[in-house]
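Worked Example 4.2. Consider the chain below.
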Amino acid sequence: MNQTIARFAAERVPVEFVHRYLSHSHVNMHQFPPIVRSKVERALRSTVTYDRFLTWEDDLFPSELLHIPNPPYCLFYRGDLEVLQQQTTALVGSRELNRISHRLVEHFRPLIEETVSVSGGALGIDGLVHELSLRHHRPTIAILGAGFSHFYPQVHRPLFEQISKHGLLLSEYTPETSVRKIQFLERNRLVSGLADQLVVIQARQKSGTMNTVAHALEQGKTVYAVPGSPLDPLAAGPNRLIEDGAIPLTTCDQILTRPRIGR
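Applying the procedure from the previous section yields the following structure tokens:
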């Protein structure tokens, strides 16, 4: 059954069909559009086998992701699944960096030392978060927007290989899935969904980071934003979030001293 679910993932079969497939002995295929039926038929004919993946059927599948809109039903991984049992903090931000970016990420090092960092493996803030975690011998989770045979960005290949040894790589895409822009937007809902809270360090007012925030709010997550100068374009996103009700974050204790909700 698990291989069948992985083959559904390879064909991008909608989650609604998989729900019905797993809960009913017979599924009326004519209830679904022709494109879905074609994907299902290809998946059921496939003989490809996959390794190192989790499905809804597995006890180690992160339960947080079962309750988000459009939940993933299959996750491919490289690394240590045990880190999923620890408290997590998503730390995200701009692909651009400026003169204070490194210092800002370093300022929030206690979050990295006391919780497991989650980010998207992108250039900029994401990469700094993952690098700082590894440098301080802390596990980190990178959720990728393509398959493991198509690491993106390519410059982060050494970083991803280190994360696979000392943390966890996750992707809802089969290893052979190539890079497509839409997949990184889809990936964002998993970054926020897996985390106990979301911290926006730097971002322009219109950016992929703000897309992650939208997912977090839809998922009912607590969103923190690091305030910055009104003259800094990379502070425009966090400052706007604070205006809209996000919690201004200036010290790690604001998160670390909060009562922890059990996983």
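The CA atoms of residues 200 and 225 lie 5 Å apart. The beta strands are 53-55, 74-79, 88-93, 116-119, 140-143, 168-171, 197-202, 222-225, 247-248. Compare this with Example 4.1 before moving on.
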